[in-house]
Design a protein that fits this description.
With 311 residues, the protein is mainly alpha-helical. It folds into 2 domains: 129 residues, Tyrosine recombinase, N-terminal domain (DNA polymerase, domain 1, Orthogonal Bundle); 141 residues, hpI Integrase, Chain A (Orthogonal Bundle), CATH 1.10.443. 57% of the residues lie in helices and 3% in strands. It has 14 helices and 3 strands. It has a 3-stranded antiparallel β-sheet. Strand 1 and strand 2 form a beta hairpin. Helix 2 runs antiparallel to helix 3, helix 4 crosses helix 14 and helix 7 packs across helix 9. The radius of gyration is 23 Å and the shape is elongated.
Length: 311
């Protein structure tokens, strides 16, 4: 393979036998808790890609979008279905996640490439940060439910919390003296510790010391969870629906909690590095974070329009 100098650790790649690289890749997949069957599939697809790179005299550390599109065309010419190609790209995506995690490549070139013959679309209907801050500032907080709901919408805005994570937080996860909150791992999101913004402090303190005890007394519930419904159930789906309903009345552009989260992540990327935002968002893979980067998406769309073999 050709070796092109670009400031990254070429010696790491070229001093390793392909088998050693695949074995290290397997250990990486184990470290992110993939199932054994999934690991076997991803290893196989990564190995096939590396064989193609060798045959076409390409360097694994210099692969770009055009190379990947040529590989897609290569697979298509051999009768692979879009579903099969998608599976192969998944293995390659994880391979570059592994290489990027060790700073062996600058970025994951497969991060944005998805098939139904097209890239994964940029999140749309992104709200301006000023809109979100204005909503929190003016969010109604009458009564126990209003004060609870404003605390919830504050965490959706300032911590980018998912709907499914809201019911997982416990009181002890909030550390007001450190101005931090720990968000436990839930579903697709990894656990992380995030800063509580100054505008939230008094609201959270009042909720924890006054509002929450009153809700527990009113509902006769015993729980360590930070948030609970005012009804008899434990599920917070109705509560979250009411939180968002009030938000939509204030701003008709608001559609969902996921839209708020996407807007927050987009805002974060304007002020923090990709790896930092990956942690803040609880993303397991940096490629999940990169899809919010408009600079990468615009460049890739140009490549797709020019070269895409699955149109």
């Amino acid at each position: 393979m050709n070796k092109k100098g670009h400031g990254y650790d070429d010696n790491f790649i070229f001093s390793m036998e392909k088998e050693d690289l695949i074995n290290d890749f397997e250990n990486y997949l184990l470290s992110i808790s993939q199932r054994l069957e999934t690991i076997r599939t991803n290893k196989g697809n990564a190995a096939l890609f590396m064989e193609w790179l060798e045959e076409s005299n390409r360097s694994i550390i210099d692969v770009g979008y055009t190379d990947l599109l040529e590989y897609i065309n290569y697979c298509k010419e051999r009768g692979n279905t879009k579903s099969t190609i998608n599976g192969k790209l998944q293995g390659i995506r994880h391979l570059y996640d592994y290489l990027e995690s060790g700073n062996k490549v600058a970025f994951n070139p497969v991060g944005q490439l998805r098939l139904k013959g097209i890239i994964r679309r940029q999140p749309h209907d992104i709200l301006e940060w000023e809109e979100l801050e204005e909503m929190y500032k003016n969010y109604p907080s009458e009564g126990l439910s209003g004060k609870r709901n404003k605390t919830i919408i504050g965490m959706m805005i300032y911590q980018g919390i998912r709907n499914g994570e809201i019911g997982q937080i416990e009181v002890t996860d909030v550390r007001l003296e450190e101005a931090k909150v720990f968000l436990p791992s839930a579903g697709r999101s990894k656990g992380r510790s995030l800063i509580i913004e100054s505008v939230q402090i008094l609201q959270l303190q009042n909720y924890i010391t006054r509002v929450r005890p009153s809700i527990l007394s009113f509902t006769k519930k015993q729980t360590d969870k930070l948030f609970m419904s005012l009804g008899s159930g434990k599920n917070l789906n109705n509560t979250i629906s009411r939180v968002l309903k009030a938000a939509k009345k204030m701003n008709p552009r608001i559609k969902s909690g996921e839209q708020i989260r996407q807007s927050v992540i987009t805002h974060w990327l304007k002020n923090h590095g990709v790896r930092e935002v990956q942690y803040m968002a609880g993303h397991r893979y940096v490629s999940s974070t990169e899809r919010y980067r408009t600079d990468i998406l615009e460049t890739l769309q140009e490549k797709i329009d020019e070269f895409h073999p699955l149109k």
